[in-house]
Amino acid sequence: MMLLLACVHVVDITLTAAEVAPAMANAAPWDGPDGKSAGSALNLLSGALSQVDPTGQLGGAIVGTAASMTLPDVAATATFDPGDGTAPSTVSLPVVNDSLSPVWTGPGFSRVAIGPKSRLSVVFVDRDLSSDDPVGTVVLTASDLALARARGEPAVIAAAAQTSGQVLSVTVSVAEGSEVKR
Hints:
Elements: E1 8-20, H1 39-49, H2 57-68, E2 74-81, E3 89-96, E4 109-114, E5 119-126, E6 133-141, H3 142-151, E7 155-158, E8 167-175, E9 179-180
Antiparallel strand pairs: 1-4, 1-8, 1-9, 2-3, 2-5, 5-6, 7-8
Helix pairs in contact: 1-2
């Protein structure tokens, strides 16, 4: 569905959430030693601990903690391009640790003008200690932003086709502002 913008609208835009695939495109877990599952090491450790902890509680706690370590630490950088020749603006969204469903409350873009050529590009990464893993880049078009504005509530926009299935969707809020006639 394509919504055309007959005029420029001044709005506030906030990326509020995303859904990330449970594994990297190569099927490896997001985090772990060299992107590989630490399952065999955990089994060995659990076996060794059973000698000192016959109840298995300690081993279970370690396995549970290690399982959460395979989830990504998602951060994002969003760039809004008004599409009218003026300079784009960029905001960095904070890291959400160990989550396939990161949620943000800000920052966003305040009082920006969306027109027919506007777009919001969001680059997602899995933050790691040694090097970050790319998750994907999602581009929301002027039509996507107009649809979110028309709904009057945060809009979930499918994104898997843009990111090799790594970012499944993004949720964006476009709050109504004042209208500028062209």
